[in-house]
Amino acid sequence: MKRRVVVTGLGLVTPVGNDVSATWSALMKGENGADYIKKFDAENFSVKFACEVKGFDPLNFLDKKEARRMGAFTHFALAASDEAMKHSGLKIDESNAEMVGTYISSGIGDFWAIEREHEKLLKSGPDRVSPFFIVSAIVNLAAGNVSIRHGAKGPNSATATACSAGAHAIGDSFRLIERGDADAMICGGAESAITPMSVAGFASMRALSTRNDEPKRASRPFDAERDGFVIGEGAGIMILEELEFAKARGADILAEIVGYGMTGDAFHVTMPDESGSGAIRVMERAIKDAGIEPERIGYVNAHGTSTPYNDKFETLAIKRVFGEHATNGLAVSSTKSMTGHALGAAGGIEAVISVLAISERKLPPTINYEFPDPDCDLDYIPNEARDAEVEHALSNSFGFGGTNACLVFKRYTE
Question: How many C-beta neighbours within 10 Å does residue 342 have?
Fold first, then answer.
C-alpha cells in the first residue's frame, strides 16, 4: 500500500516578495515584479527588463565568507529552505536524519559564476579562476548546501530538467516518501540566471517579451498581445512528510500531495507539441495517479509563459483533459504574469502557490489580461484574485527538450 504524503512547510523567494507572506500578499494584490535590469548594464540589449528578486541580502543568514563561496541560486534555496523548515517545525537529529532528504533542482545553476570565471580565464589566465567556481556553479549544490545546513542525511539529489526542474524535484520526492526511501524531504527549485549571456541567449531565440517601454505589462499569459516571457528568478521550497511521521510529531498539515505525472513531447527542443500531446498525457497521468476524476480539480496553476505557442497549446491540452469542465467550473491562472518565468525554480514556486490556494481558499489572478485570444478561452481568473473553496489543485510545468511535469495537491482530510 502506498504511503500518504503531506505538505507541512513552505518557503519562497520571488520577484514580488522574499518570503511566503510577502509573496502571497503581492499575488493577491496583482502586483508585478518586472522592472529594468539592475544586475548588469542592459543598455545595448534588445530586452532591458526582467523580474529580479529585490532587497535580498544573503548576509542575513550566511556569513560573508560562506556567501562568497556559493551561487545566488543557492542563496535563494537556503533562504526558502530555512523558512520552510521553520514553518514545518521539523527538527532533524540523530533519530531521523538518515530518513530526511533534500531534492532541490535548477535549470542552470550559477550562471553568474560561469560568466565571471570565464572572463577571468580569458583576461588573466587559468590561475585566476576561483577554487570555488565548480562548487558554486553546479546544479546540485543548492541541495547539497541545504542538506549540510540542516543535517539531512537521506536522499540528496537534483534534476536539471529546464523549466520542469522544480516540479520534478517535488514529484520525485513524493515518490521517495511514498515507497519508503525517506520519511521527509526538503524539495523544490532555485534559479538565478538573469545574466548577460542568459538574457542575450533567450532574446536571440526570440523567447522573451520585448515590451521595453512598459515592463510591468509585458508578462501577459493567454492575452492576445503576448509576445514572450519575462525572465525571473527565486526559489520555491516545500517540506513533504509521510503522513504518520508528520502526525506523530504534531505537524500542522497544509495539504496532501496525491498525484504526479511525467512525460516527454518527443517533438522539438523548444516548441511545444502542436497537438498538446505531452501536456495532455502529463495531466492525465497525474490525475490518474491521484485516483480522481478530472472534474474534481478546481484550480490549475498553468505553466502559462506568455509565449504565443505555449499558452495556445496548454489551453488546448486543458480542454482535451477536462472536457466540459474546462469551460464550466475550472479556474486557471498563470502566476508568471506577476513573478515572471523563474526557469528551474518556477515549478517549485508554483507548487507552493498551489498549496496556498488550497489552504488560504483564494486563487491568484492572471494579471495583464486585457485582450481575449480566441485560441485561449478559459477562465483565467483575469486581473483580480478570487475567493474559492478548492479541494484539488493541479500545477503544470513544461520545459525545453519536451520535458513535462504535473503535480496534484489535495485539501487534507483524515
Answer: 34
CB atoms within 10 A of CB 147: 25
Task: Give the C-alpha separation, 216 to 130, whole Å.
Answer: 37
* pLDDT tens sequence across 45-61: 999 999 999 999 999 99
- Separation CA 48–CA 409 (nearest Å): 37
Partner residues linked to 396 by β-bridges:
406
Q: Is 325 a catalytic residue?
A: no
- H-only helix segments in 110-237: 111-124, 133-137, 141-150, 165-178, 196-204
Given a contact cutoff of 8 angstroms between Cβ atoms, the answer to whether 298 and 362 are in contact is: no
Catalytic residue selected from 51, 75, 163, 392: 163
Exposed / middle / buried, residue 95 (Cβ in 10 Å: 0-12, 13-18, 19+): exposed
Q: Mean pLDDT of all residues in the chain?
A: 97
Report how far residue 399's alpha carbon sits from residue 405's, in angstroms, rounded to the nearest whole number: 9
Q: Determine which one of 150, 168, 303, 392 is catalytic.
A: 303
Q: What is the dihedral of CA 374, 378, 379, 380, to 10 degrees?
A: -80
* Cα 105 from Cα 101, distance rounded (Å): 13
Q: Which amino acid is at 24?
A: W
Is 303 an annotated catalytic residue? yes
- What contacts 250, CB < 8 A, 6 or more positions away? none
- 392 has catalytic annotation: no
- The span from the CA of 312 to the CA of 333, in Å, is 14
Give dist(CA 15, CA 191) in Å, integer.
12
Q: Report the percent of the chain where pLDDT is more than 70.
A: 100
Would you say residue 207 has pLDDT above 80? yes
Question: Which entry of 51, 341, 376, 406 is annotated as an active-site residue?
Answer: 341
What is the tens place of the pLDDT at every residue in 66-124?
999 999 999 999 999 999 999 999 999 999 999 999 999 999 999 999 999 999 999 99
Give SS3 for 233. Answer: coil
DSSP codes, 247-314? HHTT----EEEEEEEEEE--S-SSSPPTT-HHHHHHHHHHHHHHT--GGG--EEE----S-HHHHHHH
